[in-house]
Amino acid sequence: MKFLVCISNVPDTTTKITFTPDNKEFNKAGVQFVINPWDEYALTRAIELKEAQGGTVTVLNVGEADTEPNIRKALAIGADDAIRVNAFPKDAFFVAQQIAAIAKDGGYDVILMGKESIDYNGFQVHGMVGELLGIPTVAPAMKLDMSGNTATLEREIEGGKEIVEVSTPFVASCQQPMCEPRIPNMRGIMTARTKPLKVVEPTGEGARTEVAAYALPPAKQGVKLIPAENAGELIKLLRNEAKVI
Amino acid sequence: MSVLIVVECDGGEVKKSSLEVASYGSQVAQLLGTSATAVAVGEATEANLAKLGEQGIAKVLYDNEPRLKDFVNGAYTKLIAAAAQQEDAKVIVLANSNIGAAVGSRLSVRLQASLATNVVELPKTEGGSFTVKRGAFSGKAFADVKLDGERKIIAVKKNSIEALHEAGKTAEVVSFSAQLTDADFADAPKQVVMQDQAGGILLPEADKVVSGGRGMKGPENWNLIEDLAQALGAATACSKPVSDVDWRPHHEHVGQTGITVSPNLYIACGISGAIQHLAGVNSSKVIVVINKDPEAPFFKAADYGIVGDVFDVLPKLTQAVKELS
Ligand SMILES: Cc1cc2nc3c(=O)[nH]c(=O)nc-3n(C[C@H](O)[C@H](O)[C@H](O)COP(=O)(O)OP(=O)(O)OC[C@H]3O[C@@H](n4cnc5c(N)ncnc54)[C@H](O)[C@@H]3O)c2cc1C
Ligand SMILES: Nc1ncnc2c1ncn2[C@@H]1O[C@H](COP(=O)(O)O)[C@@H](O)[C@H]1O
């Protein structure tokens, strides 16, 4: 079984978000980047399934050279090899085209992604890749088990879940409680240095959307405190002042 | 040319988020000087679909193929693509739900459309361009995104658009078939399991949420959260550590790595307000924080606050709500 795990390089979850002076780009200065937290579920689950039934795990990132530390981290966690498509990820469609091209060339059976990127919050790339390849996408998946070429997944829907069965090849986007994401150990970090990381150039058409400007949400006015003894007063304020109940 | 609106139904009813989507779509149609048609998916009744007239819809297409009752990505995509073709839709509007966003991304490839998910406002169409505002960086920012393609698909974030209610107007319900085959049902569910939902209010759809953190001390105290939620008609939620240790199910976990909610009222009880938690809730209209530590970071993001013990404060709040009505 050939697993392809797509990882996105995102600002650490504690990052205070700021933009360049023209508001067109995210300000990377001083920001720590991590593997997108949802993608860690995809990576760990692929490694677990490979350990259980054999195969290989390839990680794929569409990004510029500065994403390599996190690609190496994925190799240290247990992926066998890596591919980086050398391009700024302009939009979801641009990224999806790169992933689809590599998935097709490499004959991957299972393409795993995260539920969404925590910077772009698209929930888009997995559906687009499935459609480009003409195969099912199960998103978001809370559980993934495989038996031969058949996968059983739990897909979260609003208010419940669906049990879905698909055969390879397919795309799934992963979220908790699928597995306990692994962290690299010393041996993993040592071996990751010599695992293959191939860099390829982008293909396909360009992007279909363009960010005109970023903006921060308006600042809060400041909190109105109500003494604990008069807690009931809060409910009156919510009705008469805030008008939300 | 027209605007096509995807309406999700469940148990015969149109979902609340789809009433918002319908209202969004009919306003886009007005903006573009064209008409708005809806296509319904899920289990619907003709009477409820006809009521979409109140949200400005003239016509609703509905395929009553029984296998479409549950979400099937392949079949839904084909159905909506066929409707888009028939109606010559240039703009397709759907909910930013697990269903809407999943279908939207497949459709964008099939119809060669520009796609924006998580959209929070009506588009700006000055000078022939088409720009939408969407949430990004997990609630910490917004992006104005230009949709350059000839066709556009917009997934609207829940609770960000006020639903229209033009009383008395009805839509015409027209039966529609996309000639679906077995192959379109490849990802059909083998089984659907719905959660027991306290008071029947789904967290992603709720307009009021009462949420508990580690300060609640243990699952045995959740009746305090549930009582207040029930009195208010609110859904319940929790912080990540609470679901990590199984005090509450994971689908209640809100935040950067949980679900994002944007209710009118979010009440945080015994939650410190870590940046990852705030990312999932800071687009709520009014935030109330109850915490015994006056230095808790959540107070900086709150509109109202009580510095106090949740075990003392929550019963008083529940009592006060009951006295209101
Ligand atoms: C990669 C990553 C992703 C994360 N994603 C999320 C996420 O999506 N969602 C999320 O919630 N967290 C997330 N976290 C965790 C986050 O950093 C915090 O650890 C978490 O939100 C804290 O939960 P808490 O506020 O319930 O607990 P604590 O931080 O322990 O806070 C408990 C609060 O309760 C108060 N308290 C205690 N007793 C009482 C009492 N009797 N009455 C009133 N107040 C009381 C305390 O003063 C304290 O402020 C993430 C962390 C990481 C590293
Ligand atoms: N630049 C990228 N390189 C590789 N995979 C990506 C990239 N961007 C997004 N993905 C994958 O697509 C998933 C969904 O991303 P998004 O559609 O942006 O929310 C992520 O969780 C990743 O698995």
Can you give me a brief rundown of this structure?
Chain A is built from six helices and 13 strands. With 245 residues, chain A is of the alpha/beta class. In chain A, strands 9-8-7-10-6-1-4-5-11 form a nine-stranded mixed sheet, sandwiched between helices.
Mind summarizing the main beta sheet of chain B?
Answer: 7 strands, parallel
CATH class of chain A: Alpha Beta
What is the CATH homologous superfamily assignment of chain A? HUPs
Outline type of chain B: globular
Q: How far is the N terminus from the C terminus of chain B?
A: 49 Å
**Strands across the major sheet of chain B, in which order?**
5-8-4-1-2-3-9
Q: What share of the residues of chain B does DSSP label as strand, in percent?
A: 25-35%
Biggest interface between chains: A-B, 75 and 96 residues
Helix content range of the residues of chain B, please? Answer: 25-40%
Kindly report the average pLDDT value of chain A: 96
The fold-level CATH name of chain A is Rossmann fold
Shape annotation of chain A? globular
Ligand list: flavin-adenine dinucleotide, adenosine monophosphate
Number of domains of chain B: 2
Order of helices and strands of chain A: EEEHEHEHEHEEEEHEEEH
Question: What structural class should be given to the helix and strand makeup of chain B?
Answer: alpha/beta
**How large is the radius of gyration of chain B?**
21 Å
Mean pLDDT of chain B: 94
Helix content of chain A: 25-40%
